[in-house]
Amino acid sequence: MNIFITYDTEKTKPAALEFSKRYQYPCINISDANTSDFTTSLSLNFKNEVVELRDNEKDISIHIDFLSGNLAHRQKYGGGRGQSIAKAIGLKQGTPPPSVLDATAGLAKDAYVLACLGCSMTLVERSPVIVELIKDAIHHAEEDEYFQTILKKGFEVINQSSIDYLTELKNQDVISPDVIYLDPMYPDKKKSASVKKNMQILQKLLGKDEDTQELLNTALKIAKKRVVVKRPKGAGNLSEVKPTYTVESKKTRYDVYIIPKE
Ligand SMILES: C[S@@+](CC[C@H](N)C(=O)[O-])C[C@H]1O[C@@H](n2cnc3c(N)ncnc32)[C@H](O)[C@@H]1O
Q1: Residue 127: CB within 6 Å of ligand 1?
Q2: What does the pLDDT look like over 219-255, one tens digit per residue?
Q3: Residue 17 near ligand 1, beta carbon < 6 Å
Q4: The dihedral of CA 69, 126, 193, 4: what is its sign?
Q5: For domain 69-258, which CATH number applies: 3.30.160.390, 2.60.120.10, 3.40.50.150, 3.40.50.450?
Q6: What is the pLDDT of residue 70?
Q7: 62 and 52 in contact (C-beta within 8 Å)?
Q8: What gap in Å lies between CA 243 and CA 261, rounded to an integer?
């Protein structure tokens, strides 16, 4: 996907230029952003207040905020260990929360929910644009007292293909994560107007994830205790390997693959 990098002040210019150089995207001052190429494309905007991803054609934008809006609400009132996602990753009273590797970090919503449940998190995301949004959100939250407890437990972000990352973990004989969590992009059958803003922009930027079966197979070889795959209710399994069991919520199904003990 064609993407522009923009900045709005001298303060945000260096970060925008550095990103554009590293990933070879054109970089412009936002006030010069009016060519037809620009108005039909996505842009990653380094603004004074926030880094946002904007669909200039549809005039919608997204950024990540761990401290207000949906994520903060879910942290305060989300139902704790009773949530389906908590059951799916195997959170139990009296046992320490597992270490989780989120191999499809995306906008880090699920990763943040899991971190709020006490899990130490490693987030792996292959899109550098998305990683920039996550890093900006961490930067904005790091002075917050509650968020500092999350950083202390572990909330590391890695910009790499998860298949490569997991393969390196295995080759280096590093301790495996207890749980590997997958939430790949799936083709949405609904008309695009009804698809949420976040998903519309992600779909435009990233398309469909084509390597999900390989990712699941790799994860199954590396996770210590389980692999959890988030699917829309009614969608097929990710591969021919059948899950051990499923946990269902209103719109979502979690396929849980328990790793047999050696
Ligand atoms: C549907 S989004 C995940 C949303 C996320 N669970 C959340 O709560 O915001 C899927 C993300 O996984 C990333 N992804 C898919 N396959 C990947 C892979 N093999 N390695 C790294 N990232 C991957 C995509 O780039 C995309 O950003």
Answers
A1: yes
A2: 999 999 999 999 998 888 888 889 999 999 888 999 9
A3: no
A4: positive
A5: 3.40.50.150
A6: 74
A7: yes
A8: 16
The pLDDT tens digits of the residues spanning 32-79 come to 887 778 787 999 999 999 999 999 999 999 999 999 877 776 666 666
CB-based burial label for 73 (10 Å; 0-12, 13-18, 19+): exposed
Element (H, E) at 159: strand 155-159
**Cα 183 to averaged position of ligand 1 atoms, centre (Å):** 6
- Burial of residue 53, with CB atoms counted within 10 A of its CB: 0-12 exposed, 13-18 middle, 19 or more buried: buried
Domain boundaries, the chain: 3-62, 69-258
pLDDT of residue 48: 94
* Residue 252 Cβ < 6 Å to ligand 1: no
The two three-digit tokens of residue 159, written as one number: 């910009």
Ligand 1 centre distance from Cα of residue 107 (Å): 8
Res. 193: pLDDT tops 60: no
